[in-house]
Write a structure and sequence with these properties.
The structure is a homodimer.
Chain A: H1 3-22, H2 29-36, H3 40-46, H4 50-73, H5 79-96, H6 98-106, H7 113-135, H8 144-156, H9 170-183, H10 192-196
Chain B binds a DNA duplex through helix 3.
DNA sequence: GTTCCTCCCGAACGAACGTTCGGACGGATG
DNA sequence: CATCCGTCCGAACGTTCGTTCGGGAGGAAC
């Protein structure tokens, strides 16, 4: 009888959509009740509090995106290609799950105590993965700490402007960001051909 | 008798600090009353609503940062240098006014109606300024829209990690980000000397 | 001395919030 | 049949919220 688990996941999904649209604080349990079809009190059968709902979203999402990144790196050996693979996976995942990722990015500071700690740990694991990738490519003059946070900024900021229904395809976005981060905005002396010849162009 | 204006600015300053620390929605008017030394009702002598307080912060800050950028560009003619000057100004201003800028970045979607519209216009003017700068440098293969939003992501994300009391100096941060955006993380074939020789190093 | 205006506040208002209480329903168990 | 347990809910509880009300204090105007 997984129907109980299904109901919980339905609730988490509804909460994700509304938290993303309206923000965590601005969303009331009555909003969630209305949108999920459950009664106000019924929600508390599945979840201890409103904060636990946010915790479930963030915990699941970090776990998912971390596992996805690890899988995307499998078999890729060239350090530069590994960075590119990380960026590509992050952005394709992000654009494919905008509401989850917006809740991850925008409601970063709402949890407290144990829940906060556990999400922080999952986040740390994911961030450390990028850190290790960045240290394994040659980066002469740039502070790698600044570079890492800056890359996350490039990628995570998209929840403020990217429209999945628009003309920019996720893979194209991922390639642009990867090229931007690795080679910069100005035309470099590196062969542009090798970049334009990437699959799916 | 500017003492009334002073009191208002004191209030706006207090609100900026608390909104930045706790978030707009999580801050109550009673919090502001306590922190500003004014009575709860007294606040409403200076301000029509809690939202107007947020509006004043955002409106003033966008105006200030836009004017600062225009001033920073004055006399700079080389297109590439103009982009670098914009980045440098944005980051030095940001690191120097972290609370204002956090409120600008994080509480972007809280206003409604006329106030929202006016802040949106000020923001538009500032963003358009960067847009025009980016179009005037050679950027062969990269989508300028993606590049512009990405650059803002690089810069605005710092409110999530940068510690002004830490070891990274604002000017160093600004130079790193500028170099990262223009030339990328990988060592380019451009002379690194010209970058290392920038003033203040 | 009366009126007016600016500045300011204690106290309250109505609404909305997250959460809990007590119990209803239905299938499984003995 | 009685009992129990997982599922679910209407109604309420206590709190906090943004805002308003009615008025006081004090200086300026006439």
């Amino acid at each position: 009888m997984t129907s109980s688990d299904d109901r919980l996941q339905h609730l988490v999904g509804t909460a994700t959509a509304i938290f993303a649209e309206r923000g965590f604080r601005a969303t009331s349990m009555r909003d969630l009740s209305r949108a999920s079809g459950m009664s106000l009190a019924g929600i508390y059968h599945y979840v201890r509090s409103k904060h636990e709902l946010l915790f479930l979203i963030q915990d699941q999402c970090f776990t998912e995106v971390h596992a996805g990144a690890v899988a995307a790196l499998e078999g890729v050996t060239d350090p530069e290609e590994r960075v590119r693979a990380f960026i590509r996976h992050h952005l394709v995942f992000f654009t494919g799950h905008m509401d989850k990722m917006k809740v991850l990015s925008h409601e970063d500071d709402e949890l407290e105590g144990t829940m906060r700690q556990q999400v922080r740990e999952r986040k740390r694991a994911y961030v450390d993965l990028l850190w290790s990738l960045l240290h394994q490519v040659d980066h002469r003059p740039v502070n790698p700490v600044v570079a890492g946070y800056t890359l996350f900024g490039m990628m995570n900021w998209i929840y403020t402007w990217y429209n999945p229904a628009g003309t920019i395809r996720p893979e194209q976005l991922a390639d642009d960001v990867a090229r931007l981060f690795l080679y910069g905005y100005l035309p470099s002396t590196r062969p542009a051909v090798e970049l334009a010849a990437s699959p799916g162009g």
